[in-house]
Design a protein that fits this description.
binds iron/sulfur cluster; Alpha-Beta Plaits; 2 helices
């Protein structure tokens, strides 16, 4: 099971394909479309509705990219395995 690190300010995990997903929890406004585009990756937590990563390998990379694109305030950051930001 991949490790997900969630702190007050972010939820972050590395996918099996090497891509790194980060949700900026300071920015997240609990809008929710990320959890529709990639429902197995992003979970809106009960406490405040912010998106935390539940399973970084739950959806395809394309679905995760679509989730990142759907976030109205660009709170989801995707990096490739070299650490280069590919979105936003
Ligand atoms: S789409 Fe963006 S603002 Fe909305 S819950 Fe997901 S990360 Fe948060």
């Amino acid at each position: 099971m991949p490790q997900v690190i969630t702190t007050d300010s972010k939820s972050e995990a590395i996918r099996a394909d090497g891509y790194i997903i980060t949700v900026d929890l300071d920015k997240c406004i609990s809008a929710g479309p990320c959890s529709i585009a990639a429902p197995l990756t992003f979970l809106l937590r009960d406490s405040d509705g912010k998106a935390i990563i539940s399973d970084p390998d739950g959806d395809t990379l394309e679905a995760v990219m679509e989730a990142a694109r759907s976030c109205p305030i660009l709170a989801i950051i995707i990096k490739d395995k070299t650490g280069k930001t590919i979105f936003p």
